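Model it.
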Amino acid sequence: MVKENKLVFSFDDTKKSRFGVLPRYAKNELLIKWFELPNCFIFHNANAWEEGDEVVLITCRLNKPDLEMVSGDVKEKLENFSNELYEMRFNMKTGLASQRQLSASAADFPRINESYTGRKQRYVYGTVLDSIAKVKAIIKFDLHAEPDTSKTQLKVGGNVLGIFDLGPGRFGSEAIFVPREPGITSEEDDGYLIFFTHDENTGKSSVTVIDAKTMSADPVAVIELPHRVPYGFHAFFVTEEQLKEQAAL
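Modeled.
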């Protein structure tokens, strides 16, 4: 993938972006319906669901990405990393597509209460990026609220319900939502956000747990780890019951 310290592929920002929607019970690829939207690049989606004739996609949309940012001085290049939360709609009857910006930059790694995967949901949790590999805060969006389009930075207000700042010299990872009670019978945001944190001031790594409903600056728990956890991208949560099931295999 890399030749002469450069990627062998590049992003063509002269073409429109194409999105294919495949019915979940499709028998073959001929049933894919294609849509076009203005040029963009997407790393991570939050959720999607059916709403009348439309398929709604909540995603983090990147405008004119510099793919070399993954191999260079990412701190200097983050200013070109205009990653924002978007709502995209694909009308399966008319063939038309639309999009709406929901946040300022730079937000990424969106997660939800996974009990609502494929269902219409209200809350999205994401990260506020300091660089392509460093997370400086955790953010909570309310899809039922109108975004404040006057904001050029991610701040509380509009559809931003809360931001948990990790503090100077402290950086984290993707935050996983863990419901207090599994299922969709309790409130959607009744649970916790769990993520790794590394303190560059002390060299210590920890697991941080915060209240997903209140986004309080006071964490529910901070568990110091015996070893450094490198900065990473994705994570998932496994229950004690799931671990026991794996051990039995």
